[in-house]
Amino acid sequence: MDIVVYDASEEPAIMAQTNQVLFPVENVRLCIEVKTTADKGEIEDAVAKRKSILRLNSRGAHPSFAFVGYQASQTAATIAKHLQSGSVEDRLDFACILQLGMFASKLEFAPGSPDESKDYIVGVTPLHNREGKDRISGSYMEPPEDGDPAASDILHDGNQYPIVDISGTDFVCEPSRALLLFCESMLNLLSVRGSRSVFSHYLTDVGREIKTL
Length: 213
What we know:
By secondary structure, this protein is an alpha+beta fold. The chain has one domain (3-125, 175-212). It is built from 3 helices and 14 strands. The chain is globular and about 60 Å long. The model has no long low-confidence stretch (mean pLDDT 88).
């Protein structure tokens, strides 16, 4: 695991040896696997690691398991199929693929989901069109018709955004918003009170909009 989130107040000091620390499974809240490139193999490997953690003998709850990929070697539709492979119980709890602006999550970790009839949400975060500084709900930017049809990204307002095929239509996507939704899921999971984190109350419904795959 690349990142282990645990309760420092409950971590036994005797288990620390220089910079190597043993983490009792009961004290770990979240494990995050971080990969440079997301593909079928890396996602399946992360799922296998999650299963190995769940097999540990815990006197309490088992930690949740998340995945972050910086790049994607396959299309959004293909990555979505890999994330949704198998039963819901066996899938990653939540995930973010930055290059695609993709967010995936079990429903319990995705408040404000656009489709609460689904147990597992996978989608991308398209860049909203705006009126002044305000985002327009349900209205998303598409690449210009006279642009390069082979282009994989676009420069807009000084920032580079990926172009992602969503059900046969190209949209300009916003990776930072996918990461924001990932962080919301993480903070809600770690909320001491077992309810939504303070951060969650400052995200709007428009900010949570995704195009599902």
